[in-house]
Write a structure and sequence with these properties.
This protein is α/β, with parallel strands linked by helices. The protein contains 19 helices and 16 strands. One of its GO terms (biological process) is proteolysis.
């Protein structure tokens, strides 16, 4: 993170935290725990921590003044167009595709515009409406469009190839660049940058109201919220906001049926404690490392508690203190890909997503999408920095009320992800207090079968389900696309534990 990108507030906080951490480390962390110095930690380890929970931001971010046609998105309305990407095979017409891109001028902001993709279901407009949120914080949902569960993937020659396991096979699918400043979303006013889940979820709720006003034919369809990584924060807050809006009869009723979190960060206190257990179980660290690094956790736990009660500066402190656990593991692990420990990290993203950036920065593509001259950036350092005070907050607390009202939750996780590992996710799901907790805890684990093979292990009780996905890392739809689509289809149909639908035809009909 370049010095020029750091706000005066963050600099002030960093100075405060430098003293705080020195005191915390000297008083609370035992002397036999050898860590980087504070200076070395905040400089050398920063990039690894920025990558944590999704992809590392680039140094550039879009300039609002460079935007062309998105300025038409005014007066709190959606400006949307049908489009057909250049380089898409099969010669399908724009009208036949049902692919849309648009901007929405967010009403409770100074000048913010939210960019989104909308892909109609390949089979029926009566299919559920599913919104996908990528994490980061500050990473664009286009990462999912082109590499996970979107309608197509990008070839090396910049042409597009149909994805037969895209989630538009089973849903009307929305991808949103959020919070403001992410991907193609922008504002000319820095006051529109969000710092907490209230601002993020309010903006998303305003967008949904406008979307369903524009697409009234879909307003009564079942609606599901999905996403991964830092969206483990976004999704519960957004689901609660939609549920609250429905109860208060605000605007259009949204037929919220469920929400799904993939390899997410939701309850940091539980999930950070699981880091060393997962790393030891997977052979990343030794028993001696395990005992030494675990001595950091009481300080982390205290810092998280202070974040929950004291606010901004203590939340930044907890972020830095707790991430020494992760950075200590990574110092031992070396160059492994912490999104998929079976592989080595290659490049700043640990994956090569350069084709997406090349494609989305093509003049022909920008013209097709109506984004003017704005430069696409995979992950925004500005958004990431702004949300640091949100990082260690517990978003599990709002989930029980949703479960009690019958809104379904699916938590799924690829087994080879370190950064948001399945073990930590399983633990917070099991520890969550709600009326069905004992029933969930005592329920048996069953195989999740796809095409006659075990694709994962499933545990369900009432509206709550947890799925450990085999042979997958952080990005489950990328690593196991067929199993991920099968998971979505069965879950939205209320048949997640029924393998009779595993023979469904997954054809790329257009």
């Amino acid at each position: 993170m370049a010095l020029a990108e750091i706000s005066p507030f963050f600099l002030f906080s960093a100075l405060f935290l430098s003293s705080f951490l020195s005191l915390a480390f000297s008083v609370l962390i035992p002397s036999d725990v050898h860590l980087h110095s504070t200076a070395d930690f905040s400089h050398t380890s920063a990039e690894k921590l920025i990558q944590a929970l999704n992809l590392i931001p680039q140094d550039a971010s879009p300039e609002p003044s460079a935007v062309g046609s998105p300025s038409d998105a005014s007066q709190n309305r959606i400006v949307e167009r049908r489009f057909r990407f250049p380089g898409l095979s099969d010669g399908v017409s724009v009208d036949d595709l049902g692919h849309h891109a648009g901007y929405y001028s967010l009403p409770h902001t100074h000048d913010a515009r939210m960019f989104y993709f909308f892909f109609e279901s390949r089979h029926s407009t009566k299919d559920p409406v599913v919104i996908w949120l990528t994490g980061g914080p500050g990473c664009s949902s286009e990462l999912a469009v082109f590499y996970e569960n979107g309608p197509f993937t990008i070839s090396n020659n910049m042409s597009l190839v149909w994805n037969q396991f895209g989630w538009d096979q089973a849903s009307n699918l929305i991808y949103v660049d959020q919070p403001t400043g992410t991907g193609f979303s922008y504002s000319s006013d820095k006051r529109d940058i969000r710092h907490d889940e209230t601002g993020v979820s309010d903006d998303l709720y305003d967008f949904l109201q406008a979307f369903f006003a524009e697409h009234s034919e879909l307003a009564k369809n079942d609606f599901y919220i999905t996403g991964e990584s830092y969206a483990g924060h976004y999704i519960p807050a957004f689901a609660s906001r939609v549920h609250q809006g429905n109860k208060n009869k605000e605007g259009i009723h949204i037929n919220l049926k469920g929400f799904a979190i993939g390899n997410g960060l939701t309850d940091p206190a539980i999930q950070y404690k699981a880091y060393t257990d997962y790393a030891l179980d997977m052979g990343i660290i030794k028993e001696s490392d395990y005992k030494r690094i675990n001595k950091i956790y009481p300080t982390c736990e205290l810092a998280i508690k202070l974040c929950g009660t004291s606010g901004t500066v203590s939340c930044l402190a907890s972020y830095l203190v707790c991430n020494t656990i992760f950075s200590s593991i990574m110092k031992i692990a070396g160059n492994i890909n912490y999104y998929d420990i079976r592989t080595q990290c290659e490049g700043s993203l640990c994956y090569d997503f350069s084709n997406m950036e090349k494609f989305l920065n093509l003049a022909s593509v920008r013209e097709t999408l109506g984004v003017g001259n704005i430069e696409f950036v995979s992950c925004s350092p500005t958004v990431y920095q702004a949300m640091l005070t949100d990082w260690m907050r517990n978003l599990e607390v709002g989930i029980p009320a949703l479960l009690e009202d019958g809104i379904k939750l699916l938590v799924y996780a690829g087994e080879y992800d370190l950064i948001c590992n399945w073990l930590g996710n399983s633990r917070w799901v099991h520890a969550m207090e709600w009326s069905g907790q004992s029933g969930f805890v005592s329920s048996s684990e069953t195989p999740f079968m796809v095409d006659g093979s075990e694709a994962g292990l499933l545990k369900s009780h009432g509206p709550l389900s947890f799925l450990k996905v085999h042979d997958a890392g952080h990005m489950v739809p990328m690593d196991q696309p067929k199993a991920a689509l099968e998971m979505l289809k069965r879950w939205t149909e209320g048949k997640l534990d029924d393998d009779s639908s595993s023979s469904m035809k997954l054809t790329a009909e257009m």
